[in-house]
Amino acid sequence: MSRIVLGVAGGIAAYKACELLRRLSESGHDVTVVPTANALTFVGEATWAALSGRPVHTAVFESVHEVPHVRIGQRADLVVVAPATADLLARAASGRADDLLTNVLLTARCPVLMAPAMHTEMWLHPATQANVATLRARGVLVLEPADGRLTGADSGPGRLPEPHDIAAVTTALLDDPATVSAVRARDLAGAHVVVSAGGTHEALDPVRFLGNASSGLQGIALARAAALRGARVTLVTANVAGPLPNGCTVVPVVSTADLAEAMFALQADADAIVMAAAPADFTPATPSTGKIKKDGHAGLGLSLVQTTDVLAALSVRRPRPQIIVGFAAETAADDAELLALGRDKLVRKGCDLLVLNNVSGGAVFGRPDNAVTIIDATGPVASAQAGKSVIAHRIWDAVVASRQEEIQ
Ligand code: CTP
After folding, report:
1. Which among 213, 219, 239, 388 is most buried, taking Cβ atoms within 10 Å?
2. Residues 21, 52: contact at Cβ < 8 Å?
3. How far is the CA of 328 from the centre of ligand 1 (A)?
4. Taking the CB of residue 203, how many other CB atoms lie within 10 A of it?
C-alpha cells in the first residue's frame, strides 16, 4: 500500500478528481486529499472526506499541533495534483507556500505528478508554458492536458486527462522507480512512435468473424508510456477492450489487411514501430457477402488463406534509422527453448527487438501483468515480470538504447 497525496486545485475539473480518488483508494492506496480553498467551491470537503475516509485540510493553520504542512509531504510516496490549474502551476513554479497544498509540494521528497486542466489560452500562454518548463526541469512530472471539449463551447488542449489515465500513470510510477527517471528524462521527446494493439477480426460474413483473445492492454500501456516519455504517439487499434490513453492519435482498424495498410502508411514518418497487435495469420479466402444460413448445411468448411506478415514486411521496407519491435508468445518447455524460438523469430521477422513471453503456463490475455524477455540479435537485453505498464517502460528503455546505437 502506498501513501498518495491527492492535491486538488480550483478548477471545474475538480469533480473528475473524485473519480480519480475512488480509483486510487480502490487500488488499495492510502490517499490524503489536500484541496485548495478554491477547489472547495467546486467540490466540498465532505465529499473528499467521505471518499478518502480521512480528514481533509486546506490551510496551514489547521491542526497545527500535528504540523501537517510538513508531515503530509514528507510521508508521501507520490503526490498527484489533479487538476493543476494555471495558478497552482505558477505558485508551485515560484516556490510559494501560501496554503497547505503548496507547503506539501515544498516538503515532498517523493515524485510529484501534475495533471493540468485549464482553458486553451491559459495553457498555451508563455507564462504557463514557462512554469511547466521550470517544474519539469526540477523533476516534476507534468502531463500534457487532453485535447477536446472544455467548459462551455470551447474546445482545444486543456482538458484534464481522464481519471483512468491518470490512475494508470500513477500505478506505473509507484510500481517501478526506474519509470520515474525515464519519464523525467523525457527520452522519447521529438520521436514519433507507432504502436499497434489488439486482435484483428477476419470477416466470414457481414455478421461473423474469426478473432483472437488479444485485449490490447499491452499495446495501450506502450502508447501511454511513450506519450509520458515525450513521444508523439500513433496508436493503431484492432478491436481493443481497454479505455484509450491521453495524447495519442488513434487509428482504428478491423482486419489484418486494414492493419497492414495503416502501418505501411505510417511507416515513413516513424522513428520506432512496436507491433503489439495480434493479427490473424489466416483470413477467409472468400468472405460471404450475405449472412451464411444454416438451413441445408450439416456442417461448414472454411477455406483460409495466409494474411500479410505485417511485421516482416515493415522490417523489409524500413527506412533507417527506425527501430522495429515485435512480440512473440511461445509455448516453450524452458528458458533455453524460449530463447531459441525467439532468436529464430527475430531473424525470420527481421526486427531489431523481440518481446518474448512463454504462454505455456496459462493465458496472459486480458490480465494486467506479464512476464517477458526482450531480445535483440545479440541475445537477451532485459527481462521483467511485472504489470503491463512497467513492461511497457522496459520495452521503451530497450528502444531508446537501440536508437542510440543506431544513431552512433
Ligand atoms: N505479426 C504480424 N502479421 C501477422 C502475424 C503476426 O505483423 N500476420 C506480428 C505480431 O504483431 C507479432 C509478431 O508478428 O509482433 C509475432 O507474431 P507470431 O504470431 O508469434 O508470429 P508468426 O509469424 O505467426 O509465428 P508462429 O508461426 O509462431 O505463430
Report:
1. 219
2. yes
3. 7
4. 16
Task: Decide: residue 1, CB within 10 A, 0-12 exposed, 13-18 middle, 19+ buried.
Answer: exposed
Calculate mean pLDDT across residues 366-376: 84
Catalytic entry in 38, 212, 239, 370: 212
CA torsion 265-269-271-276 (nearest 10°) is -20
Quick check: 242 pLDDT over 80? no
pLDDT tens for each residue of 309-326: 999 999 999 998 999 999
**Separation of CA 281 and ligand 1 centre (Å):** 7
pLDDT at residue 368 in the model: 66
The answer to whether the beta carbons of residues 404 and 271 sit under 8 Å apart is no
| Ligand 1 environment, Cβ below 6 A | 256, 275, 277, 279, 281, 307, 309-311, 326-328, 349
99 in Cβ contact with 60 (< 8 Å)? yes
How far apart CA 257 and CA 282 sit, in angstroms, is 11
Residue nearest to atom 24 of ligand 1 (CA): 281
- How far apart CA 50 and CA 57 sit, in angstroms, is 13
Q: What is the pTM of this model?
A: 0.93
For the chain, which domains are there?
3-175 (3.40.50.1950), 187-407 (3.40.50.10300)
- Residue 116 and residue 336: Cα distance in Å, rounded? 47
Q: 282-284 and 232-238 as β-strands: parallel, antiparallel, unpaired?
A: unpaired
pLDDT tens track for 10-26? 999 999 999 999 999 99
- For residue 80, which of 104, 57, 56 has the smallest C-alpha distance? 104
* Structure-block grid coordinates of residue 107: 516538503
374: pLDDT confidence band, cut at 50, 70 and 90? Answer: very high
Query: Phi first, then psi: what are they for 252, rounded to 5°?
Result: -80, 140
How far is Cα 224 from Cα 12, in angstroms, rounded to an integer?
Answer: 25
